[in-house]
Design goal:
With 365 residues, the protein is an alpha/beta fold. The chain is globular. The two termini are 17 Å apart. It has an eight-stranded mixed beta sheet with strand order 1-2-4-3-5-6-7-8, with helices on both faces. The chain contains eleven helices and eight strands. Helix 7 crosses helix 8.
Length: 365
Amino acid sequence: MSSNDDFTIRPLRTFAAAALLACMCAAPGAVAAQELRDIRPSEGPLVLQSRGSFYVGGEQVDKTAVEIGDLGPDDQITIHQMYVEYMVPDGASKVPVVMVHGATLSGKTYDTTPDGRMGWYEYFVRKGHPAYVVDQIGRARSGFDQSVFNNVRAGQTPPDEQPSLLRLGDRFGSWTNFRIGPEPGQPFPETQFPVEAAGKLSRQSIPDLLGTSRASNPNWKALSDLAWQLDGAVLLTHSQSGPYPLESAIIDATGIRAIVMVEPGTCNAQVHTDEEIATLAKTPIFILFGDYLSSPTKLPGPSWEDRFNDCKAFKERVDVAEGDVRLLATADTGTRGNSHMMMMDRNNLQIADLILAWIDEKTSR
């Protein structure tokens, strides 16, 4: 594990220059797509044993011609499947790590950063861990069930039964909520987020077509099944998906070697029963938060400080059950400026080293 000195912030520009770049990124029409010329060259060859993709779960259901989209007769489609892409390093001997993105995003979260640096997907592989990156069910390459929208369009379902489509905006959903800065276009003085690439983060946004209020989330079982198929894995989640591994472990913890929750939207401290807490106490859990937790998100709902306190209460319950939970804010290590998107921050590889050291400690026994 890196020492606290390794986490010292090294400012790359003055606050004024950063603010100017940030304002440029926040201006309407200023967004530019990430281009090939933005990508930083790798330090050396990435040697793999294998790479590929597959799906976990899914069920075939009958649909009417209207639900399918009026292309031919009634038929079947598959829903609730989870897309997984992976890289296995040559000579891999460490535990696989499954990476799950947060709200209105996709597996791109863990790939090349918005400003072109190496993401956690590649870095974990270079550190000897097979990495499996998913798209949440209902998002990106996992697809979604279009039936309800087509039924509403055809007048067969009332419009108020159509689910809301969630997408986070740039100024508040990302900038203030992800704690890049206290106000849109204004970065924190020590921000680690590459503010000049904020517009490129916007390109990654994908509407969530499943919503966040479902009592039973198909991602939970899919992750439990994936960990079992891998014969043991660490589930690493972020934000909206933060609490997913807890639900996955309650379903079946057989394949879940450890859990890493990066800034979870909730730890559901008061939701889990004592029996569920006893189950969760059997799996090592690392919960990691960034900086500026008290900064207002400018959105409805709890602050990130509230969420941290919820996870603190969760840890206290698991501690009583003699479990193993580490709860940490990066500022406690001497690091300042980490945003909600710490896998994209300028010191993202240092943060990855912190997580990897914990994983290796908990899974090498």
